[in-house]
């Protein structure tokens, strides 16, 4: 079988000016816009009543004690553990002690819970809407154009992905249609956004998707629909089984070993 | 200048604070673009950053320290213009300003009343609660301040600042066990803070110096705290200073201390030889730090002058004792 | 690997680790895009292009090593005689391979773009 000659396709340079560059510029600008939209739409942290703050921070105190228990002496740890475990089990820190034992309120009816859901919705919307819009825009205007060639060879499997909307059977899969350029932009513009907007920007979708899992854990802790009494009970259990190991034990010998005068 | 402005001014040496506040009129000449009326030029001026407002806040505090009330007032006004008078932090800052310009106790009491008014309306206003406690402390109402702080840490037990302040107040009252408890709470929140370890060591040392029956236990704990703070931060002057003091004291009481003083909880006292070696190490390290920092060797700056002088004095006094 | 007790004694502070990683990532992202521009203008295709990226990001890492890690390494070995790599990295692979994959997508993007523009 003869060597397949390298395919060359003569493209109008106008393709660059009217497709490639517009898509790239629009992608960058959308990223910037998304960043500022997220900043502007961020709701101020809602002001909480004193008992609610107390409830959350008391739980945090227990978690702090659990994670950092080793810095204090066994006696001090024991005293704190006894106090906190008792208080947790009695429900001393609860926002409204009367409600203890009842099931958590339905998050749909609780206005505070709705607020949190709205925040999440907004974040999702800020990501979804521009994506859909740009996809639609590219499909409507630029579908069917082959605009650029990847500088490295790919297997035939990628053809359907890269050449969506181009119905040629034997074109080299290196050639890309406008929609695949868009996809490449989504992944590659991360560094541009990092440079333009600082590293913790809201523009990059990758970060957004990560973020939905990451801080979600933190928000879930005090989020709607979680029964604080149950959290306290669980924390009490964690505390009471914790093995304590004092960091200061033998510190003077360690110090004498490491310090050279 | 900006770099020193972005740190809280309480940590600045007085000379730097003075220099900053002397430059305040120049810094304040141009209002930031955000609050000046809109013009075409604001398109090119630098964007607003959170740092800008931190700088304003710190500039205001520096100005108050050095008595430049006009500039401080200007800072406060600009902050108010940006964030609105209802901002919790600004309420506290305004109170701070009023405290600073108050001439006598009567005026201070007026400010206190104002704080209490704010707090009855909104008990969850943390910054103002803290200001009220600080003002109580200024007015020498220590017991009231302690009570207020206890309430505060009950509702917000993860506030390291409040626990540290509480420990300080307890130390001032000579209530060392309570102070130790409060310091331990700070440590639980910030487990790697070497300065807090050293501070706890200092409190324990003070508790051990009262001549109590359990003095040697306190001293043993203090010794370990200082060791830990040095372990976390090499060449930490305060840690070595405390270590030297504690070991000297322990050396004087260890021989006659009952060897059975090992309590059921906690660790036994370190033996005599370890204490001696620690003492020698601390002395050697202190003299090294003092020598190098006085000579201004590269990499040995950054020690506070007062601390170096104190360390030198301690070394001199102990040297005099040995000669005698 | 450090045991739990050793971690307690000499702790690794999460904030500092995050900050360091972030700085290195920014460096790698930015340089990767620039390498893409270079590779595109040179008109490199397939393997030479990837090789170009690999070599240059290794050079970046080597520069970081030479100017940032090495001085600490010398200081440390004089003081205590243990490995200086442990001062900044949990293992040495983190320095050499850490940035390679993060920068790759940025590299491919600018490479394709400039290759396309030059070979239009």
From TrEMBL, chain A:
<dbReference type="GO" id="GO:0072546">
    <property type="term" value="C:EMC complex"/>
</dbReference>
<feature type="transmembrane region" description="Helical">
    <location>
        <begin position="179"/>
        <end position="197"/>
    </location>
</feature>
<feature type="transmembrane region" description="Helical">
    <location>
        <begin position="127"/>
        <end position="152"/>
    </location>
</feature>
<dbReference type="GO" id="GO:0034975">
    <property type="term" value="P:protein folding in endoplasmic reticulum"/>
</dbReference>
<comment type="similarity">
    <text>Belongs to the EMC3 family.</text>
</comment>
<feature type="transmembrane region" description="Helical">
    <location>
        <begin position="15"/>
        <end position="37"/>
    </location>
</feature>
<dbReference type="Pfam" id="PF01956">
    <property type="entry name" value="EMC3_TMCO1"/>
</dbReference>
<keyword id="KW-1133">Transmembrane helix</keyword>
<keyword id="KW-0812">Transmembrane</keyword>
<keyword id="KW-0472">Membrane</keyword>
<dbReference type="InterPro" id="IPR002809">
    <property type="entry name" value="EMC3/TMCO1"/>
</dbReference>
<protein>
    <recommendedName>
        <fullName>ER membrane protein complex subunit 3</fullName>
    </recommendedName>
</protein>
<dbReference type="InterPro" id="IPR008568">
    <property type="entry name" value="EMC3"/>
</dbReference>
<comment type="function">
    <text>The EMC seems to be required for efficient folding of proteins in the endoplasmic reticulum (ER).</text>
</comment>
UniProtKB/TrEMBL annotation, chain B:
<feature type="repeat" description="TPR">
    <location>
        <begin position="160"/>
        <end position="193"/>
    </location>
</feature>
<comment type="subunit">
    <text>Component of the ER membrane protein complex (EMC).</text>
</comment>
<dbReference type="GO" id="GO:0016740">
    <property type="term" value="F:transferase activity"/>
</dbReference>
<dbReference type="InterPro" id="IPR039856">
    <property type="entry name" value="EMC2-like"/>
</dbReference>
<protein>
    <recommendedName>
        <fullName>ER membrane protein complex subunit 2</fullName>
    </recommendedName>
</protein>
<comment type="function">
    <text>Part of the endoplasmic reticulum membrane protein complex (EMC) that enables the energy-independent insertion into endoplasmic reticulum membranes of newly synthesized membrane proteins.</text>
</comment>
<feature type="domain" description="EMC2 TPR-like">
    <location>
        <begin position="106"/>
        <end position="203"/>
    </location>
</feature>
<dbReference type="InterPro" id="IPR011990">
    <property type="entry name" value="TPR-like_helical_dom_sf"/>
</dbReference>
<keyword id="KW-0472">Membrane</keyword>
<keyword id="KW-0677">Repeat</keyword>
<dbReference type="InterPro" id="IPR019734">
    <property type="entry name" value="TPR_rpt"/>
</dbReference>
<comment type="similarity">
    <text>Belongs to the EMC2 family.</text>
</comment>
<dbReference type="GO" id="GO:0072546">
    <property type="term" value="C:EMC complex"/>
</dbReference>
<keyword id="KW-0808">Transferase</keyword>
<dbReference type="Pfam" id="PF22890">
    <property type="entry name" value="TPR_EMC2"/>
</dbReference>
Automatic annotation (TrEMBL), chain C:
<keyword id="KW-0812">Transmembrane</keyword>
<dbReference type="InterPro" id="IPR029008">
    <property type="entry name" value="EMC6-like"/>
</dbReference>
<dbReference type="GO" id="GO:0034975">
    <property type="term" value="P:protein folding in endoplasmic reticulum"/>
</dbReference>
<protein>
    <recommendedName>
        <fullName>ER membrane protein complex subunit 6</fullName>
    </recommendedName>
</protein>
<keyword id="KW-0256">Endoplasmic reticulum</keyword>
<comment type="similarity">
    <text>Belongs to the EMC6 family.</text>
</comment>
<keyword id="KW-1133">Transmembrane helix</keyword>
<keyword id="KW-0472">Membrane</keyword>
<dbReference type="GO" id="GO:0072546">
    <property type="term" value="C:EMC complex"/>
</dbReference>
<feature type="transmembrane region" description="Helical">
    <location>
        <begin position="95"/>
        <end position="118"/>
    </location>
</feature>
<dbReference type="Pfam" id="PF07019">
    <property type="entry name" value="EMC6"/>
</dbReference>
<dbReference type="GO" id="GO:0000045">
    <property type="term" value="P:autophagosome assembly"/>
</dbReference>
<dbReference type="InterPro" id="IPR008504">
    <property type="entry name" value="Emc6"/>
</dbReference>
